[in-house]
Amino acid sequence: MAKLTREELYALVWDRPMTRLAKEFGLSDVALHKICRKHEIPTPPLGYWAKKAHGKPVTNTPLPKARGANSQYHIIIREGAGSAESEAAAMARARVHQAIVGRPEQGPDEVGDPILRRTIERLSKAKADRSGLAEIEDKNVITVAVRPDSAARAQQILEELVRSARAAGITLAAGERGAVWRAEGEEVSFDFAEVADRVEHVPTEAELKAVAKWEAEREAYRKRTGYDRDWGCPHIPKWEERYQGRLAIRLEEVRIRTENQYWGPTIRGKFADAKNRDVAKAVPKIVSSIAAIAVAKRENREADERRRLAREEAERRRVEAERRAELERKRNAMLEKLVTEHEETVRLEGYLLSLEQMVDGRYVPEQIARFMNWLRERLERLRAASTPESIDARLAREKLFDAE
In Å, how far from its chain's centre is CA 217? Predict the structure, then answer.
């Protein structure tokens, strides 16, 4: 594992070719290019090292400033990086590979899986549909869609797949719509299908007659009206899809979403025959991918649970912050009210005292006397509301200082 700053990796990238540097890190040059793009590190253009080797002038692209506040972070480069799979998924792949390579040889008749037996039996009786494929689908069988001519080879591949999976501790089980793999405590759905090839279409006699008829009608229309027309010509496709025995195993599509809740790289799950590739020889890779997908599903679920708990905690904190803010607002409002009442009491007491001094020893007019009595009653109410007992009751009623 290497721990570098952007500046250090930039210096290495422009010091020696990417292919050589990638080998030093134990990964592919494609993976190293991805790391550089992710961290906005420019790389030498095509032909840069050839020009430099021949003494021709070359120009280095300057390192742009890192986005974000923290530009001094470190880039962690692990051996084998470039695959977004976790260490647990990589270990699962390694365990599967070791189990398959080290298993004893088994004959075709030693596969005793009931789901596989039912699949083979059902496939032998299935009839081809209009597309030419014989399809079977049920929770207790493997989902298969192949031409009858390909059924025998499909059986051989499925038998080898089940044997290899069993050696790695991966078993078949009934699923909701078809058989699934049970691995690493998870279920991985899959199907076995014959895929169509895109081949050049050879016009049929009916298609050629239809075009000839349209051209004759077009010529007749031109002679009759003096006008030409180019619409309505029957379309003969240039390409067509044709089933020619190319088989494929398609595993459940799973994205690695541990870092991003909605998006992530997809684990390879489709293995098909190609010009120079036989899907039967890819069985070890297929089984290892089953294990990696199972681990990824578990890690995705765990990551989703962590994100859910984080959202709940964030919501709890938000609600708590709002509650505290509202409580503080009410406390301040109560304080303002108590202070206002206190100031009112002091003000009225001073005013009443001045009135009493003015009328001391004099005749008090009737209205003044009534006013002073009313003022004394108001002061008594204010004083009563300002006692510690009264304030305590008001605070308790509003629950402003309850124990938390």
Answer: 57
Whether the CB-CB separation of 360 and 366 falls below 8 Å is answered with: no
Q: Is the pLDDT of residue 82 over 70?
A: no
- Which amino acid type is present at position 22? A
225's tokens: 């009206």
CA distance 185 to 200: 46
Structure tokens, 13: 């990238």
Count the residues in the chain.
404
* Global pTM value: 0.66
List 80's β-bridge partners, or say none. none
Task: Using alpha carbons, select from 382, 380, 373, 381 the residue that is nearest to residue 355.
Answer: 373
Phi, psi dihedral angles at 336 (to 5 degrees): -60, -40
The partner residues of 247 in beta bridges, in order of sequence, read 194
Q: Specify whether the CB–CB gap between 99 and 46 falls below 8 A.
A: no
Task: Return the beta strands (E) in 6-111 as ranges.
Answer: 74-77
pLDDT tens digits for 111-164?
578 999 999 999 999 999 998 999 999 999 999 999 999 999 999 999 999 999
State pLDDT tens for residues 315-362. Answer: 999 999 999 999 999 999 999 999 999 999 999 999 999 998 888 877
95 in the same domain as 38: no
- Whether 68 and 94 map to the same domain: the answer is no
On whether residue 329 sits in a domain, the answer given is yes
